[in-house]
Amino acid sequence: MDFNLDETRQALRGLAAELLAREAAPERLESFEKSGITYDTVTWKALAQAGLLGVVLPEEVGGAGLGPVELTVILREIGAHVAPVPAYASLALAALPIARHGTAAQRALLGPLVEGDTVLTGAYREVGPAGLVAATARPDGDGYVLDGVKTFVPYAAEAARILIPARVDGAGVGVFLVEPAAATVTAHPSATTEPLSRVELTGVRVGADALLGGVADGAAWDTLRRSAVSGAVALSSGVIEGALKITTEYVKTREQFERALAQFQAVTMQIGDVYIAKRALDVAVWAGAWRFAEDAPDTDEVLAIASYNACDPVVKALYTCQHLHGGIGLDVTYPLHRYFAWAKHSGHLLGGAEDQLDTLGALVAQEA
Question: Could you report the per-residue pLDDT of 219-230, keeping only the tens digit for each?
Answer without folding.
Answer: 999 999 999 999
